[in-house]
Amino acid sequence: MARLPKPLPYAQQVAIFSRLRDAEPSPVTELQHGNAFQLLVAVALSAQATDAGVNRATKSLFEQVQTPQQMLELGEEGLTEHVKTIGLFRQKAKNVMKLSRILTEDYDGEVPDSRAALMSLPGVGRKTANVVLNCIFHFPAQAVDTHIFRVGNRTHIAPGRDVEEVERAIEDNVPAQFQQNAHHWLILHGRYVCQARRPRCTICPIEDLCPYEEKTV
Fold this sequence. Notes:
Layout: H1 10-23, H2 36-45, H3 51-64, H4 68-83, H5 89-106, H6 115-119, H7 126-135, H8 146-155, H9 163-173, H10 176-179, H11 182-192
Helix pairs in contact: 2-7, 3-4, 4-5, 8-11
């Protein structure tokens, strides 16, 4: 098994995240939502789907549904009609109905602010829980997706063999002042600049600080 590279040193982390912050001072998730429940549903629907695709599907849904009780009233068939353009929509719809019932019966219709409680809900994994904790409850949780996994390893900001290793590497190595927004900056950087097949190195704000050798010119 190949050894992981060492994470970038402190001064380099500060320099990188300072530039990412300058480029996007107040980053937010691109999943559209009006409250904690809607974000939970949107993230649960986003697995193996794009944020843009989820937003298209939830636009009319969220005009009608703002609470778990309203989701139950809509029913699984009604929800399915809204989200049928999203991959794995039938299973996702089942999970959303189940978690809506649990939230209604066990949490007085509120989204809990505990990772363990969130992850106990059907269809909610660690990444989904971390998005909710970060975006709604302002806890510096790191929701590692494919973009962050790639950027963390490619730049050596947070190397790891799996998403949990990358998550820990962000928590251990990114300075505290950047922790709250770190995953937003890394997602945006991976989505629009440090892309998978052809990274856009010529417009990259951290190109001179990045050890990635196969730079595109």
